[in-house]
Amino acid sequence: MRKLFGTDGIRGEANTHPMTTEIAMQVGRAIAFIVKDRSRGHGIVIGKDTRLSCYMLENALAAGICSMGVDVMLVGPLPTPGISFITTSMRADAGVVISASHNPFQDNGIKIFAHDGFKLPDCVEEEIEALIFSQKMEALRPVAEEVGKARRIEDAKGRYIVFLKNTFPKHLMLDDFHIVLDCANGATYGVAPEVFEELGAKVTALSVDPDGTNINRRCGALHPELMAETVRREKADIGLAFDGDGDRLIVCDEHGQIVDGDHIMAICAKDLLAQRKLKKKTVVATVMSNMGLQVALEQMGGILTRTAVGDRYVVEEMRAKGYNFGGEQSGHLIFLDSSTTGDGILAGLQLLSVMKKKERPLSELATIMESFPQVLKNVRTRTRMSVDEIPHFTTTLRKLEEKLNTSGRILVRPSGTEPVIRVMVEGQDEQLINDMADELCELVSNADRM
């Protein structure tokens, strides 16, 4: 059982376990301990989003790293994918992001990238935990001139902006586009407006005044209503909303209608297929992606493969099997030929490039895929439980799956962070899938009352 790391790094309420300065310092020491033997002498990059608690955690991480004789490069507020980029660009030994992504400001988290810009595999996270809860690091305490030092990388934002612009086709410009950007008062606030303006777009920027406490508050990818309303009012061409650390993108068309990650994947996959750039004609998505995406890909000659929930598992599958495009319905989109992780700004640029080439509005492009009706219900239980413990659950699930046959699917999974069983049913008959979800949820509730 892992004590610190979850599905996407360490996360929790800031200044309470595990998101304390004491743990952050130990995480810094452990990362430095692991990279020290193979260090190329460039040090470890630390970046953050705009949360108030980032200041204390940044200093604790830097202190821990320096105490083990490894240097630190501080980049300040920058999107998570930007920190991954700087890590590889600076030939750093590792990169650390202080962010809780889409969570409210009182939460925070720590994500770690290896020197190649990819998130650490589970086995290395387990090694970090083992070091923290052992005394192994106490044997190495550099002194005098052997301790590390910290320096600030002043041009990190500029480097990242140049990189992003270079992912957009060089023969195209956005000078006839009006784009609404909602930066969630998060890490994209100082980057996204400049990227799109320098490519010629007229930009209406929302949520670009972070104060340490307003990140993700009624704005950004989790609350796209503000973006959609602004697009309608301003008669803009498209709206792009990012989450707090900028690795997620939610879009609305020119009518203010939300376009989710599945539709964006379908649009971009068709363009990549036309260019013969979609490796093995395959898109990698998670079990949460709509069946409509699978149908759309099959109609255009593509293939959908699925992974567990989490963009890190999408990336692991892509790297293991040689694929180059994938993502999540929630808006994590990975263009592996350009980036090692999900990047909301980069994904927005790729979508806009398709719109430019096709000379069609997003509302028309989004008709490439028709979503199957999907119902998702959560059942909170008193304690964590496995569905295998629930009487008659497995047999009922099998019976319902047989009834759906190939025209739908059922996904049941426990939450990784709380005592909740999630039930998702998808199919062409909306009433039928609602009844099925209710039947399964009732079995969970009955078991919880026993």
Q: In a nutshell, what does this entry contain?
A:
With about 450 residues, the chain is of the alpha/beta class. It has 14 helices and 19 strands.
Task: Walk me through this protein's architecture.
- The structure is a single chain.
- With 450 residues, the protein is an alpha/beta fold.
- Helices cover 36% and strands 21% of the residues.
- It contains 14 helices and 19 strands.
- The chain has a 7-stranded mixed β-sheet with strand order 1-2-6-5-3-4-7, with helices on both faces. The protein has a 5-stranded mixed β-sheet with strand order 9-8-10-11-12, with helices on both faces.
- A hairpin with an 8-residue loop joins β5 and β6.
- α1 (21-36) packs across α4 (122-132), α5 packs across α6 (192-198) and α8 runs parallel beside α9.
- The longest helix has 20 residues, at 430-449.
- The radius of gyration is 23 Å and the shape is globular.
- The two termini are 27 Å apart.
What secondary-structure arrangement, pairings included, does this model have?
Layout: E1 5-6, E2 9-13, H1 21-36, E3 44-48, H2 54-67, E4 72-77, H3 80-89, E5 94-98, E6 107-114, H4 122-132, E7 150-152, H5 156-166, E8 178-182, H6 192-198, E9 202-206, H7 225-234, E10 238-242, E11 249-252, E12 258-259, H8 261-274, E13 282-286, H9 291-299, E14 303-307, H10 311-321, E15 325-327, E16 333-335, H11 344-358, H12 362-365, E17 374-380, H13 393-404, E18 408-414, E19 420-427, H14 430-449
Parallel strand pairs: 3-4, 3-5, 4-7, 8-9, 8-10, 13-14
Antiparallel strand pairs: 1-2, 2-6, 5-6, 10-11, 11-12, 15-16, 17-19, 18-19
